[in-house]
Amino acid sequence: MRHSRHFTLDEANAQIPWVVDKLAALRDARARLTDQQARQALTEGSPTNGGGHPGKVVGEAFVELQNGIAAFDHRGIVLRDLDSGLIDFPSVQDGVEVYLCWISGETEIAFWHDLDAGYGGRQPL
């Protein structure tokens, strides 16, 4: 099997509130990285050598982004797309490894797909 951690539908649905909060935090951190002023700050100062405040903010946002992505990995949750909030939860159906698929705006997990099918291959549970 490709994944060592597998979720039941109930276990995956129980993770949704955490996922929603973490996606919001990641989007906020990314926004601080993509701002033109923040990019300029990266060239002017480094948070590791006492760089100016803008450089420190950008450095902190980068660390938050890295840690947030690592938190998904640590839980065994697959973050596919931050913009849309596309998330896959590894699961097993009838002895076959699949993904329980959720996207921001859905109230609960209602779809699954084969490991290599992607979002376009989603099927109702």
Automatic annotation (TrEMBL):
Can you tell which superkingdom this protein's organism belongs to?
Bacteria
One Pfam family assigned to this protein is DUF2203
Protein name listed in UniProt? DUF2203 domain-containing protein
